[in-house]
Design goal:
The protein is 39% helix and 14% strand. With 430 residues, the protein is α/β, with parallel strands linked by helices. Helix 5 (139-157) packs parallel to helix 6 (215-224), helix 6 packs across helix 7 (235-251) and helix 9 packs across helix 11 (344-354).
């Protein structure tokens, strides 16, 4: 199976910076981030995954939700690690293709072929005002722009042929101009001449990750993504999603195995089940319901949820979200709450511990058993591990769960290749 770690400085659980298992104040410490990436690399993870946010969290007063720039952070981590893939998020709504293409090509050179781009279209309405507009574009418009954006980036990466840099001292020829071309893209959203200012990177076409599970998001992922990061809480639903993604990939002219479907999971590990439950309760005690409510409202396109009673059944909000709101995440939250008859408070507690992903609370064997079932059923090609707290939650998984997966022949014991694309290629362990 494939494993990536979704890395937030203190962990995914809201308010977890207050836990003695974290070291508050190290959110921007290079040593802290290097330790996290090195821990994941010691566990032979495919990738270290850094998300992004283009607005200051409304819950910043009580939650350590600082979001450093992913490309700058991963550039620093490229010299603190040697094998693990480095995937960063960059928005197609609030960036331009030339900049993104150049940033990630540079990161791929610095890391010697370990970079990957997580493609997002940005569904947080408040981001618009940070980038000169009053409103977020509608969902369909964001994906239309995103499709063209990705095509331009891929085209720019191809402007340099692999052997364009000659560096022949005797002739004085550094680059062969016949092997460098312009892109000359003219589309609805972009006009980009090219070529890039850096040569073709070690991987050429960097692996792409994508996390949208709406119709347009799935079609984009099926066409271009190597990793699909998804939120799934039941194996049957995850299998149906994975099968649909594989079908869409084939329809887009790819092989079904060209993309890997990785649901997010938050493992909370204890030596006994009772210890794991106690740890989950302790981490959950730091969750701020007002802060989580603000996080949830942002996912719902700014919809105000404060008027609802916390202990009343969660309301059916289908059809009530603004057009610019995200689709897949709000739909999952609403469906989960309605099907399980959760109150607003219960839903907030669940989201606050794992940003809405599936929590696995148990012994190392319990967690390995669960991951094995999903993997062997085809419901997942692997998982994005989202530790509730850092670094302890990641360390627990690497030291206790990974060895069990390795002993069962489900996960590599050492890296077989040197690049992120190598890690994703299902090569046998060397």
């Amino acid at each position: 199976m494939h494993l990536a770690v979704f890395a937030q400085a203190m962990g995914a659980a809201q308010g977890v910076w207050r836990s003695p298992r974290t070291v508050a104040g190290t959110e921007l410490s290079p040593g802290h981030w290097a330790h996290l990436a090195q821990t994941a690399e010691a566990g032979c993870f495919d990738a270290f995954f850094v998300a992004d946010a283009l607005t200051l969290s409304p819950g910043i007063a009580g939650d350590a939700t600082l979001r450093p720039d992913p490309v700058a952070l991963l550039s620093a981590l490229s010299v603190a690690t040697s094998r693990i893939g480095l995937i960063g998020t960059s928005s197609t709504t609030y960036n331009d293709p030339f900049t993104v293409a150049r940033q990630f090509a540079t990161l791929d050179h610095l890391s010697e072929g370990r970079a990957g781009w997580n493609v997002v279209t940005t569904a947080i309405a408040a981001a618009a005002e940070n980038y000169g507009t009053e409103t977020l574009p509608d969902h369909e418009d964001r994906y239309e722009r995103g499709e063209e954006f990705v095509d331009v980036v891929l085209g720019l990466w191809d402007c340099w042929e692999p052997d364009a840099v000659v560096a022949d001292r005797s002739s004085g020829v550094f680059a062969d101009l016949d092997r460098i071309r312009s892109l000359d893209h003219r589309g609805r959203h972009f006009r980009v001449r090219g070529p890039l200012t850096v040569p073709r990177s070690p991987q050429g076409r960097l692996p792409l990750a994508q996390a949208g599970s709406s119709g347009p998001g799935m079609r984009l992922g099926a066409r271009v993504a190597d990793l699909v990061f998804t939120t799934q809480v039941a194996p049957e639903a995850s299998l149906a999603f994975a099968d649909e993604m594989r079908t869409l990939a084939v329809a887009a002219g790819r092989h079904a195995g060209d993309l890997k479907v990785l649901p997010g999971v938050t493992p909370i590990v204890g030596r006994t089940r009772a210890e794991a439950r106690d740890l989950a309760a302790d981490l959950g005690s730091y969750v701020s319901e007002p802060s989580t409510l603000q996080f949830m409202a942002a996912s719902f396109g700014g919809l105000d949820l404060s008027s609802y009673e916390l202990d009343d059944p969660f309301p059916d909000l289908r059809g009530q979200l603004p057009a610019h709101a995200g689709v897949s995440r709000p739909e999952l939250f609403i469906r989960t709450a309605l099907e399980e008859r959760l109150t607003l408070r219960q839903l907030l507690q669940r989201i606050g511990l794992s940003i809405g992903h599936r929590s696995l609370v148990g012994t190392p064997d319990d967690i390995a058993d669960d991951l094995q079932r999903w993997f062997e059923s085809g419901a997942a090609d692997g998982f994005v591990v989202i530790p509730a707290d850092m670094p302890a939650g990641l360390t627990d998984f690497v030291e206790e769960v990974v060895p069990r997966l390795q002993a069962r022949g489900l996960f590599r014991k050492r890296y077989a290749g040197a690049t992120l694309r190598d890690h994703l290629a299902d090569r046998p362990t060397a």
